Each structure stands twice: as C-alpha cells, then as structure tokens.
Amino acid sequence: MRRTTLVVLVGLGLAGLIAFVTVVAPRLLASQLYPAPQQPLYFDHRIHVELAAIDCTFCHRTATQGITAGYPDLQQCMFCHVVVGKGQPEIEKVRQAWVEQQPINWTRIHRVPDHVHFVHEAHLRAELTCATCHGEVGQMGQVTRVRPLNMNDCVSCHRQLNALTECATCHY
Ligand code: HEC
Ligand code: HEC
Ligand code: HEC
Ligand code: HEC
Ligand code: HEC
C-alpha cells in the first residue's frame, strides 16, 4: 500500500517536472524575451485567419510587392464589421474609429533600426513564407515575436540560402 503511494507520488512529481520543463518554462522564457505590447484594441488573428479564412495579404497588402507588409486600412475591416459583431465592445471600437475617420495606431512588434534595410518583397519572391520569420500567426491570439531577426539571425539565413552577405546589402 505505502509502496504504491510512493510510486504514484514519484510519478506525479516526474510528470509535473516534465510538464514544467516542456510546457511552462519555454512559455515563461518566450514571454519574457518578446513580451507582446499593449494594443489599442484586441485583434485576434485566429478568428480572422482560421475562422474567417482571410489571406494574410488581404490585410498586409504590400508584403509581396513592397518594402513593408503594411497594416490594413479601416475600410478593410469595415468590409465585414459594418454588419459582423455589431454591439460587441472591441468591435464597436473599430466602428467608432471608422465613424471618426481616426486610424488605429497599432503598436509595432517587429522593427529593425533605421540604419537597416529590410525588404519584404525580396523574401517572398525567394519563396519564404510569412511563418518562416513570424511563426504561425494564424494561431496567435496576440502576435508576438518568435525569432530574433537581429543581424546574426539575418546573416545566418543569408549564408545558408546563398543570399548576399555584404554589409551594404542591409546597411546603406
Ligand atoms: C483581417 C486582417 C488581418 C489578417 C487576415 C492578417 N492580419 Fe496580421 N495584423 C492585422 C492587424 C490589424 C495587425 C495589428 C495588430 C496586431 O499586432 O495584432 C496585424 C499584425 C501582424 C503582425 C505584427 C506586425 C508588427 O507590428 O510587427 C504580423 C507579423 C502579422 N500581422 C502577420 C500576419 C500573417 C502572417 C497573417 C496570415 C497568416 C496575417 N497577419 C493575417 C490584420 C490582419
Ligand atoms: C472577412 C471578414 C472580416 C474582416 C475583413 C475583419 N473581420 Fe474582425 N471579425 C470577423 C468575424 C467573423 C469575427 C467574429 C465575430 C463574432 O465573434 O461574432 C471578427 C471579430 C473581430 C473582433 C472581436 C474579437 C474578439 O475577441 O471578440 C475584433 C476586435 C475585430 N474582429 C477587429 C477587426 C479589425 C480591426 C479588422 C480590420 C483590420 C477586422 N476585424 C477585419 C470578420 C472580419
Ligand atoms: C525574412 C523574414 C520575413 C518574412 C518572410 C516576412 N517578414 Fe514580416 N517582417 C520581418 C521583419 C524583419 C520586419 C521588421 C521590418 C522593419 O522594421 O522595417 C517585419 C515586419 C512586418 C510587419 C510590421 C509592419 C510592416 O508593415 O512591415 C508586418 C505586418 C509583417 N511583417 C507581416 C508579414 C507577412 C504578412 C508576411 C508574409 C506575407 C511577412 N511579414 C513575411 C521579417 C519577415
Ligand atoms: C529565413 C531566411 C532569411 C532571413 C531570416 C532573412 N533573409 Fe534577407 N534574404 C533571404 C533570401 C533567400 C533573399 C533573396 C536572395 C535573392 O533574391 O537572391 C534575401 C534578400 C534580402 C535582401 C535583398 C537583397 C537584394 O536582392 O537587393 C535584403 C536587403 C535582405 N534580405 C535583408 C535582410 C535583413 C535585414 C534581415 C533580418 C532583419 C533578413 N534579410 C533576414 C533570406 C533571409
Ligand atoms: C543580412 C543583413 C545584414 C548584413 C549582411 C549585415 N548586417 Fe549589420 N545589422 C543587421 C541588423 C538587422 C542589425 C540590427 C539588429 C542588431 O543590432 O543585431 C544590424 C546592426 C548592425 C550594427 C549595429 C550594432 C549595434 O549594436 O547597434 C552594426 C555596427 C552593423 N550591423 C555592422 C555591419 C557590418 C560591418 C556588416 C558587414 C560585415 C553588416 N553589418 C552586415 C543586418 C545586417
């Protein structure tokens, strides 16, 4: 009897340790490394990408052609939210902004310093996907950074995929 209790306790302790090491600790680490900033309203990518099945580039329209990916205009939100979600508090903030013609000032999550030149278009032309650099955004309630995208990270990938690595590629 006492031996089984002991075995069960040790088992539970081990299970707890494994859960901590594999699930809790990485989350704690990730949330401390790249904490998500406070946004003016809660925009959930899961609802829009998975439930409403909207393409990334419907909202981030310039990603495949330009330097930046861009944020969607309110007009694109109103395509649905004239009708969808009327009366829900977070959606009312969107409708209010539209009525007042005030753009929503999203807080930037990814940003390279001014002395760095980054072009979305070149990377998508090279057939990298959004997820390579941003992770599975369609499964994120709030977007957080998943990889450093610092010089070391950029240069390692460039080396690996035979892209340019001269300083002037990324610095003018
Ligand atoms: C319905 C519109 C919509 C769709 C579809 C959408 N996004 Fe977004 N995305 C937004 C808005 C609005 C923000 C700003 C709020 C935020 O950061 O969550 C944003 C923010 C982001 C950011 C963070 C930008 C920063 O500040 O660094 C990334 C990365 C991103 N989206 C990638 C994606 C990817 C990848 C997909 C497809 C899997 C996608 N988005 C689909 C509207 C959209
Ligand atoms: C193709 C249609 C479509 C577009 C475009 C769209 N949404 Fe939505 N959105 C939805 C649907 C569907 C829901 C879920 C509504 C519900 O739960 O009743 C939703 C829900 C929301 C919510 C509520 C989320 C929550 O957790 O309660 C917010 C806020 C929101 N959308 C903001 C936006 C913003 C900002 C944009 C523009 C960048 C946008 N939506 C563009 C379809 C859309
Ligand atoms: C090779 C890596 C890489 C890929 C692939 C990539 N991004 Fe980015 N993304 C970045 C970096 C780096 C930044 C910060 C750029 C800056 O500060 O100018 C960024 C910034 C953003 C932003 C914030 C503001 C803006 O307008 O640039 C959004 C939104 C975004 N990316 C969406 C996307 C979407 C959607 C895709 C796929 C269609 C994508 N990204 C593919 C690396 C990438
Ligand atoms: C996951 C791999 C990967 C990452 C991460 C990555 N790149 Fe790239 N980059 C590429 C590839 C592949 C190309 C395209 C090479 C080509 O067209 O021959 C490219 C092209 C470029 C170009 C365009 C060069 C030209 O043709 O004019 C610039 C600028 C650039 N990257 C900057 C950056 C910066 C800055 C970062 C980090 C913030 C970064 N890249 C991160 C893979 C990557
Ligand atoms: C593929 C893109 C890429 C290439 C190639 C590249 N850099 Fe960078 N560099 C970055 C990015 C992104 C940052 C900003 C993030 C960081 O500090 O890591 C940066 C930052 C820097 C900084 C500022 C560091 C700081 O602490 O503020 C210096 C200095 C620098 N790079 C010099 C160079 C030199 C010299 C070369 C050539 C040997 C070079 N870079 C090549 C992407 C690149």
The gist of it:
The chain has 172 residues and is an all-alpha fold.
Highlighted features:
172 residues; mainly alpha; binds heme C
Secondary structure layout:
Layout: H1 2-33, H2 45-51, H3 56-59, H4 74-81, H5 89-100, H6 120-125, H7 130-134, H8 151-160, H9 167-170
The chain binds heme C (5 copies).
Question: What does this protein look like?
Answer:
The chain has helices at 2-33, 45-51, 56-59, 74-81, 89-100, 120-125, 130-134, 151-160, 167-170. The chain has 2 domains: 1-33; 37-71 and 106-170, no CATH class. By secondary structure, the chain is mainly alpha-helical. The protein starts with a helix and ends with a helix. α4 (74-81) packs across α5 (89-100). Bound molecules: heme C (5 copies). Residues 112, 116-119, 122-123, 126, 128, 132-133, 149, 153-154, 157-158, 161, 163-164, 169-170 line the site of one heme C.
Radius of gyration (Å):
22 Å
Helical proportion, percent range: 40-55%
Class computed from helices, strands and strand pairing? mainly alpha
Strand percentage lies at under 5%
Helix/strand order, N-terminal first: HHHHHHHHH
| Ligands present | heme C
Q: Kindly, what is the distance between the CA atoms of the first and last residues, rounded to a whole number of angstroms? A: 74 Å
What overall form do the CA principal axes indicate?
Answer: flat
Number of structural domains: 2
Low-pLDDT runs of 5+ residues are none
Overall average residue pLDDT: 89
Contiguous helical run count:
9
The major sheet is characterized as: none
Number of strands: 0
